[in-house]
């Protein structure tokens, strides 16, 4: 089968960021001729600053500023040499001060990102394995992925899931020298903690377990000498822990620091660590500012600063406790997250707060799942109690207004974050709309359904009647689907929107690269349902095409769209779906902005193909109107095989033929890992055989009708469209008889013979279909997931296989 064109993760991030930028909440520029830390100028307005990561305010401390200016005066703006050769004159004193803070050997790096790139490949051996917490910072994940080239396995677990971690440890405990678990000390979005105590207890049980903690957001505001949350929990730094802190953010200067108590490992990292060797060293001003900050950290003053910040954090918590705002994680860190659910609600809320005079950060994909968009608030020593209280009052006032503006409610936000919802929201019902939700096609008016949804794929009324029967009452759970039919009408009973949904089991790697699916399939030999999820989908895995009717000219078309999206959320919650998928949109769908605003990500699907036959009276006429290049393809790659093959149209196959059809379909499906799905139930093929709307185009060697080379499974939709839904082929004889190309040709020939004006050729193999005159259509799906775990885990696997 043709190679699938895969979704590009970076393109998705670009689209999300562009959307947020256009909403005026991302990629902003601070204004003003000076900066105090308490206020920040945005678009000409002075706002109270609740977005800094300088939690103690040391970046504005006069001692750090004076030290930096003196260093520039004495040593210049930079010291342009690698530290491997010689360090600038201030470095030695800084290293001695930071060593005194930690009480263990340290390595200073240009920043934490370059530090991870230098340290991780040096610390992790080829015979080790890495396990990532799926919320560990991008810079750690990115550095870990470098080890794929050395065939170091990289696994991922759900956030802070110790049972999943232990399962991974057991998987590798007898085959790997060290098992590295990599996590943040304080997580930068929600402000929650790594379970350090429990992790250390696990390392006593599994001696190969080592830890790599990125604690840059835990630095300075907690711990002895401000050395951070992780070391505060540990007390002493064990030899199986590598600990990253920062000299920027709360520390007030620039750079990052690694602490390591294992002498051999320290020497290995220090001697040669990639960017540690080849990158430029910190500028003299940064080194001097860090030295001044280190002296504060080594004095009793650091504990006074920590206490002042803690009082502000406690005050903010106390103010929040009197509200019903969705605080995602209650903790004592300086980082807070108020959920908004949908991105467009987040944009609205942030803009409202800025209008009230408060600057906060937007939390958005990929830092959080798209439907977990929210406002990230940081408390610093710059913030005074009056503006802390003012921010809470502004949020309490504007949160419900932002929900109302974006056609959502608090219940939907709490559900998105799996928070308990107590208050009762006003139901968002429109007297102008009537929503019908039906469980079977038999409850749907056949004439009306076919009028609006017929003439496309296998989902006219009769097609759905067929599918309902095939996908129920089967022994395997992947073969049992639930159907829902949604009809949204205006007050006069006129349909504005119609569609159907299925709830079924999908493989999580359905659109992943084929080599990733191949590796996952090996694990499915032992666990058939490994990495599979129940999915709520527009349309179904069997059908292809525009799975919705929508009258965009109707005055309530937008309201009908919002009603469908809210219904999808409620249905997902009721059924326990892990993902919602809206299928088969074109590249320029008018739904794009709405779906992004509601927390859906766009992914590219395999192209689909169609053939228009109106006005063509014979296969000869059809071939003649092809381009000269495509006619040559027909004469060279298809026509010569006619002499050695024969074909027939079978509407009622015998038992032996049906058994062979199943086998040949299975041969195609197991090879098509680029669109990896579960098999179909056996009775599907028997039901096809008994249904007058299905027929089989069967190709055999000439004179050997019992030897089947290939079969096309074809459905006739109301005489309007011919649908070759699936194909089965003998791969041993595929090239000998040009089987696939012949079946495509015979499908066109058959549609012309029975006077059907259009063929929906389905997805994949668009290159071959184009050569026979098919029109290729780009297709996209919109996904809404409960979290990013599957997306990130599959991303980690890319390049390993």
From TrEMBL:
GO terms for molecular function: transaminase activity. Residues 629-769 form the BioF2-like acetyltransferase domain. Gene3D superfamilies: 3.40.630.30, Aspartate Aminotransferase, domain 1 (3.90.1150.10), Type I PLP-dependent aspartate aminotransferase-like (Major domain) (3.40.640.10). InterPro entries: Acyl_CoA_acyltransferase, Aminotransferase_I/II_large, AON_synthase_class-II, BioF2-like_GNAT_dom, PyrdxlP-dep_Trfase, PyrdxlP-dep_Trfase_major, PyrdxlP-dep_Trfase_small. Residues 50-393 form the Aminotransferase class I/classII large domain. Signal peptide: none annotated. Keywords: Aminotransferase, Transferase. Its cofactor is pyridoxal 5'-phosphate. PANTHER family: CLASS II AMINOTRANSFERASE/8-AMINO-7-OXONONANOATE SYNTHASE, LD36009P. This is Aminotransferase class I/II-fold pyridoxal phosphate-dependent enzyme.
């Amino acid at each position: 089968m043709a190679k699938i064109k895969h979704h590009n993760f970076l393109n998705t991030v670009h689209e999300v960021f562009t959307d947020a930028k256009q909403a005026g909440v991302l990629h902003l520029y601070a204004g003003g001729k000076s900066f105090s830390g308490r206020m920040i100028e945005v678009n000409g307005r002075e706002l109270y600053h609740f977005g800094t990561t300088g939690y103690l305010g040391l970046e504005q401390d006069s001692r750090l500023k004076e030290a930096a200016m003196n260093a520039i005066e004495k040593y210049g703006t930079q010291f342009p040499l690698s530290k491997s050769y010689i360090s600038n004159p201030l470095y030695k004193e800084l290293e001695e001060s930071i060593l005194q803070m930690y009480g263990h050997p340290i390595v200073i790096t240009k920043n934490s990102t370059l530090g991870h790139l230098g340290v991780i490949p040096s610390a992790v051996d080829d015979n080790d394995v890495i396990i990532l917490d799926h919320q560990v910072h991008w810079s750690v994940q990115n550095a870990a992925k470098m080890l794929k080239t050395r065939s170091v396995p990289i696994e991922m677990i759900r956030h802070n899931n110790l049972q999943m971690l232990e399962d991974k440890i057991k998987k590798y405990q007898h085959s790997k020298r060290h098992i590295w678990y990599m996590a943040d000390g304080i997580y930068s979005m929600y402000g929650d903690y790594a379970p350090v105590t429990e992790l250390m207890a696990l390392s006593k049980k599994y001696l190969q377990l080592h830890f790599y903690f990125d604690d840059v957001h835990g630095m300075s505001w907690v711990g002895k000498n401000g050395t951070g949350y992780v070391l505060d929990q540990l007390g002493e730094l064990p030899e199986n822990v590598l600990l990253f802190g920062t000299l920027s953010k709360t520390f007030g200067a620039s750079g990052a620091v690694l602490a390591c108590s294992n002498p051999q490992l320290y020497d290995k990292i220090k001697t040669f660590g990639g960017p540690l060797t080849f990158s430029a060293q910190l500028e003299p001003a940064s080194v001097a500012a860090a030295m001044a900050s280190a002296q504060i950290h080594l004095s009793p003053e650091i504990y006074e600063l920590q206490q002042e910040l803690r009082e502000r954090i406690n005050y903010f918590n106390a103010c929040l406790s009197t509200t019903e705002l969705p605080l995602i994680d209650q903790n004592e860190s300086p980082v807070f997250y108020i959920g908004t659910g949908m991105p467009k609600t987040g944009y609205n809320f942030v803009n409202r707060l800025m209008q009230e005079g408060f600057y906060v950060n937007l939390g958005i994909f990929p830092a959080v799942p798209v439907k977990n968009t929210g406002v990230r608030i940081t408390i610093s020593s710059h913030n005074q109690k009056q503006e802390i209280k003012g921010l809470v009052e502004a949020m309490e006032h504007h949160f419900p207004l932002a929900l109302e503006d974006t056609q959502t409610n608090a219940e939907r936000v709490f559900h998105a974050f799996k928070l308990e919802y107590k208050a009762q929201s006003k139901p968002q019902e429109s007297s102008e709309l009537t929503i019908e939700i039906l469980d079977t096609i038999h409850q749907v008016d056949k004439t009306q359904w076919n009028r609006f949804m017929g003439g496309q794929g296998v989902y006219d009324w009769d097609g759905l009647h067929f599918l309902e029967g095939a996908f129920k009452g089967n022994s395997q759970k992947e073969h049992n689907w639930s159907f829902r039919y949604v009809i949204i009408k205006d007050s006069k009973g006129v349909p504005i929107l119609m569609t159907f949904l299925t709830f079924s089991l999908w493989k999580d790697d359905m659109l992943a690269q084929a080599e990733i699916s191949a590796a996952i399939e090996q694990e499915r030999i032992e666990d058939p349902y490994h990495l599979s999820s129940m999915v709520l989908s527009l349309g179904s895995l069997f059908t292809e095409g525009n799975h919705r009717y929508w009258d965009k000219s109707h005055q309530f078309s937008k309201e009908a769209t919002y009603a469908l999206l809210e219904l999808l959320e409620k249905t997902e919650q009721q059924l326990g779906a892990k993902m919602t998928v809206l299928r088969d949109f074109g590249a320029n769908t008018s739904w794009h902005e709405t779906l992004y605003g509601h927390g859906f990500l766009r992914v590219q699907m395999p192209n689909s193909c169609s053939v228009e036959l109106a006005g063509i009276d014979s296969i000869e006429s059809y071939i003649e109107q092809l381009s000269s290049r495509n006619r040559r393809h027909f004469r060279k790659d298809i026509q010569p095989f006619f002499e050695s093959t024969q074909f027939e149209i079978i509407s009622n196959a015998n038992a032996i033929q049906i058994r062979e059809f199943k086998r040949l379909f299975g041969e195609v499906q197991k090879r098509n890992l680029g669109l990896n799905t579960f098999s179909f139930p056996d009775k599907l093929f028997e039901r096809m055989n008994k249904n007058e709307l299905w027929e089989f185009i069967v190709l055999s060697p000439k004179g050997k009708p019992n030897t089947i080379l290939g079969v096309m499974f074809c459905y006739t939709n109301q005489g309007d469209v011919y649908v070759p839904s699936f194909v089965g082929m003998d791969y041993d004889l595929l090239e000998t008889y040009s089987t696939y190309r012949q079946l495509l040709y015979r499908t066109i020939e058959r549609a012309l013979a029975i006077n059907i004006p259009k063929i929906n050729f389905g997805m994949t193999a668009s290159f071959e279909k184009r050569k026979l005159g098919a029109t290729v259509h780009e297709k996209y799906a919109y996904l809404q997931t409960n979290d990013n775990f599957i997306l990130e885990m599959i991303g980690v696997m890319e390049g390993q296989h």
